[in-house]
Structure formats: C-alpha cells, structure tokens
Amino acid sequence: MYVLTEHEIRRNRRRLLLLISCLMVPFFLAWIMVRFEVWLPAQTINNGDFLAGKEPLHRWPWQSEQGFPDNLKQHWLLVLVTPDTCSESCSQWQQNLQQIHKALGKEGDRVRRVLLQPVTAGNALPLTLDGMGSQDVRRWHGLTMSTPDWLARPWLKEGYQVLIVDPMGNLVTGYADSNTGRDLLRDLRRLLKASSTG
Questions:
Q1: How far is CA 39 from CA 27, 31, 33, in A?
Q2: Are 179 and 47 in contact (CB under 8 A)?
Q3: Minimal CA–CA distance to 118: which of 97, 142, 93, 146?
Q4: What is the 3-state secondary structure (H, E, C) of the chain?
Q5: Alpha-carbon distance 187 to 114, whole Å?
Q6: Domain residue extents for the chain
C-alpha cells in the first residue's frame, strides 16, 4: 500500500486550499457589490420606466360588480391610460398598440389590449384590426375607475400613456409620449421571451 510522504500531504493541502479560494472569490466579490453598491451596471436595457412598488392591477377598485375581468387574468396586458378625452397622442398609441400586437406574431396570443379610463371620460373602445387571430385576442377591453380612485393614484397623471402588466397583475413598465412604439415592442419581446407565463 502506497503511503503519502509528508511533502505530498502538504502539497495536496495547498492545492485544496487554492481550489477552495478560487471557488470563494466570486461569492466574496458578489457580496462586496451588493453590500457597498460598487461595480454595478449604470444603465439598463429597458426603454420604459420601471413601476416598482405599485399595487397590482388586479386589486384596483374597478367599476364593475365582478371586479377585475377573469378573461384578462393570466395574460400580459398593454394598458392605454386615458384620463380624459382621447387626444391625438392617445389615438396614435391606439394604432401603435394594435401594430405592436400584430408584430408579436404567435406571441400575441399571450397579450391583451386594455383601455383604462375614469368613469367620467366615457371614451368608446377603439376599433380592432383584422388578421390577428381570434376575436378575443384582437378586441380591446375596457376598464374604468371612479374619479376619486383615479386621483388617488397621482402617478397615473405623470404622463404615462401605456403600461405593461404581467400575468400576475404586477405593473412592469410605463411609457410616456417621449417613448415610441418600437421602444415598447423591444421591451415586450424581451419580457415574453424571458417569461413562460401568460
């Protein structure tokens, strides 16, 4: 039976310590990055503004006896925000959202379009485009809130024209008039690719 010499034992211990050190370095660097907020990327790849910390859309006080519609649950939502009459930019976003939905191809089945407004606005739902699958996929859905409930969410008046909502009802990103339909489409494609829900 072969017996290791004292020199070989020391050499094997050094190798083991070196291996453990190499494995621990990434964890140590990650801890430093999180603890001291250093070496973190300064830019993000999203085009819209993240809407963190907002109440999930499903729990908002909707103006209907049933609450949030079941046929919108478990889908990605493109929510067009219209606080008053539909302006020129609102009409432009209506067309953009329909074109974006069409550009998604098969992934478009996972997405629904919603017109969000206070009861006092009373805008009719936009017309739908043909050639986008079933009527349920193509049609617009309307959601209304009372004026006090709308005013209780001042960030809705900050200029966001469109919101992306995930299948769990969480608000993901908001888009203002300074954003384009292409910005939204890029972000939505990334979200759909990264998520298996919806």
A1: 14, 11, 6
A2: yes
A3: 146
A4: CCCCCHHHHHHHHHHHHHHHHHHHHHHHHHHHHHHHCCCCCCCCCCCCEECCCCCCHHHCCECCCCCCCHHHCCCEEEEEECCCCCCHHHHHHHHHHHHHHHHCHHHHHHEEEEEEEECCCCCCCCCCCCCCCCHHHHCEEEEEECHHHHHCCHHHHCCEEEEEECCCCCEEEEEECCCCHHHHHHHHHHHHHHCCCC
A5: 18
A6: 1-40, 49-194
49-194 to CATH, choices 3.40.640.10, 2.60.120.560, 1.10.10.10, 3.40.30.10: 3.40.30.10
Task: Quote the pLDDT of residue 168.
Answer: 92
Length of the chain: 198
pLDDT of residue 44: 63
Average pLDDT across each block of 10 residues of the chain; the chain has 198 residues. List them in order. 82 90 88 79 73 87 80 92 84 90 89 90 79 72 88 77 92 89 92 84
